[in-house]
Design brief:
alpha/beta, TIM Barrel, six-stranded parallel beta sheet, 34% helix
């Protein structure tokens, strides 16, 4: 309790101090090619959740080499933090920012949030930066030849493996020979440094995978110390069975397992988060390393088809159930429907009124048409309760993630980390500042298996962020998602300044982080 009181006192003092300060600015005391930085007068949150402290840090050749009261020396470039917060760079453990990374290698979508590392290959899918996927090794080589401003790590994508092995004949259990071929693809990616196996069991083609298939592949990851991260099989009507499945996989494969973007996405599930948290706590008490990540929004983004778990788009009863028990037509926002750009930004309810049809008829028609013509389509569904989001976010083993992309139609791509620090910490006190930073840095690094990132500690890699706790906030909304966060004053990646005074610097020091 005393530590919490001290934390509150220090933050209150800093907020008062910052309000009287001018905007931070770089003071270059040496040539730009110097590899040494001295960050002065910072309030340090080291990422571990402990009480913050005032100190300076020195960075040399990408590493934090000193922390304490420090004087500038010959080779230092100096940044005066003026009492603002210095923390480890934020690690995004479930990201899709990579798809446009070669086109926008220093996008404000992620840098303005303080993100210094993204982890991709999630939901069981990966691409070659928007192009057809070849392998994790191929992506890594491409990135190393064309580095971005941030670091990149990968999970091995189950959906890609199943597509490559089974082609269009995927609506069935895989044979032992097919699973073996998937295992070979996973092994190659693990050998290249993938962190583990990622699944997206609510999506085609792994929607049709069996539990045995997933366990077999998870065991391959476990054998080399890899992890397992899953978009579970259901986040609505069958969510209890989906939680039980990920726990079973963790137990049978003897693997650390993470539930991606944990949620209860169904009106009828509102308020039931405590029982699901208890289910996870029981599993952890049994020795299973179960974790989760979460984004701070009440809406998800996916395909329209997941509203019908059976994928029978001619089942009127299922369509009616989806629009009464899972989500309302007013809470389904179209972000894409191929050939009908005028749908973008409108709700299913608005389109139904415009076209003078019932929402159920419209839903069935759109799903049937998309299936027949193989049309791309996506929606945002806003059907999560704030109370459940709060509860899942407070669970000690949950970390913060965006699940977003560059210039995404969902605001999470531009706003996640700033939203947590502004809305959930400063405005609503859902988390303390120390705990929020821990959930963005050291806890995430630990869950992913990073040994020298996620903390401000001597000898650790210098991925660091300076931000103003009094002003940091997201601006992206569901109606206007292409607005960037503010309040991040400076970002260093591997010891190089990549973001300063609301713009990118041109530096591209990002590296591939491989499984250790």
């Amino acid at each position: 309790m005393l530590n919490k009181i001290k934390d509150v006192f220090r933050v209150t003092f800093v907020l008062m101090f910052i309000s009287s300060c001018s905007v931070v600015e770089v003071k270059d005391t040496q040539k730009d090619e110097s590899s040494t930085w001295l960050i002065k007068n910072a309030l340090i949150y080291d990422g571990t959740g402990t009480v913050p402290f005032e100190a300076d840090i020195r960075i040399k050749d990408s590493i934090i080499v000193e922390i304490g009261p420090l004087d500038a020396i010959k080779d230092d470039r100096v940044w005066d933090a003026k009492g603002m917060i210095l923390s480890p760079g934020f690690i995004d453990p479930h990201s899709h920012h990579d798809s446009k990374l070669m086109q926008q290698p220093a996008s404000a979508s992620f840098l303005a949030q303080g993100i210094t590392t993204i982890v991709s290959g999630m939901d069981g899918f990966s691409s070659k930066f928007g192009e057809p996927f070849i392998s994790i090794a191929d992506n890594m080589v491409h990135f190393e030849h064309n580095p971005a401003a941030i670091n990149l790590a990968y999970f091995g994508p189950h959906n890609n493996y199943r597509s490559r092995v089974m082609g269009d004949d995927y609506k069935r259990p895989a044979t032992a020979a097919e699973i073996s071929k998937m295992g070979d693809l996973l092994t190659a990616d693990l050998n290249a440094g993938a962190l583990g196996l990622s699944t997206g069991l609510e999506y085609e083609p792994t929607l049709y995978s069996t539990l045995d298939e997933v366990i077999t592949l998870a065991k391959i990851s476990a054998e080399v110390g890899g992890k397992y991260s899953s978009h579970i099989r259901s986040e609505d009507v069958a969510v209890t069975a989906a939680f039980e499945e990920v726990i079973t996989i963790a137990r049978e494969a003897k693997i650390a397992a993470n539930i991606s973007h944990i949620k209860l996405a169904m009106f009828e599930l509102y308020g039931r988060s405590p029982e699901f948290i208890n289910m996870l706590n029981v599993a952890r008490d049994q020795g299973l390393n179960i974790t989760a990540d979460i984004y701070p929004y009440d809406g998800w983004q996916s395909t329209l088809s997941i509203l019908i778990p059976s994928r029978d788009f001619y089942d009127r009863k299922a369509a009616k159930y989806a629009l009464t028990s899972i989500i309302s037509p007013a809470n389904i926002i179209f972000t894409n429907y191929q050939g009908r750009p005028h749908y973008t930004g409108k709700t299913l309810e608005e389109i139904a009124v415009q076209e003078k049809v019932s929402p159920v008829d419209l839903l069935m028609d759109l799903l049937q048409t998309a299936e027949k013509e193989n049309l791309q389509q996506s929606i945002i569904g806003r059907n999560m309760s704030e109370g459940d989001i709060d509860n899942f976010m407070r669970w000690p083993h949950t970390v913060i993630t965006s699940d977003g992309g560059i210039d995404d139609r969902h605001p999470r791509g531009q706003g996640t980390f700033a939203r947590v620090l502004g809305h959930y910490v400063r405005d609503r006190s859902v988390l303390s500042l120390s705990e929020a930073i821990r959930k963005m840095t050291s806890l995430t690094a630990s869950n992913l298996g990073f040994s020298n990132r996620g903390e401000l500690k001597k000898g650790y890699v210098a991925d660091v962020v300076i931000f103003d706790p009094n002003t940091i906030i997201d601006h992206a909304t569901f109606k206007e998602p292409l607005q960037y966060s503010t309040g991040i004053k400076a970002v260093w990646v591997n010891g190089e300044l990549v973001w300063a005074n609301d713009k990118e610097t041109g530096a591209r020091p990002g590296t591939i982080i491989r499984r250790e």
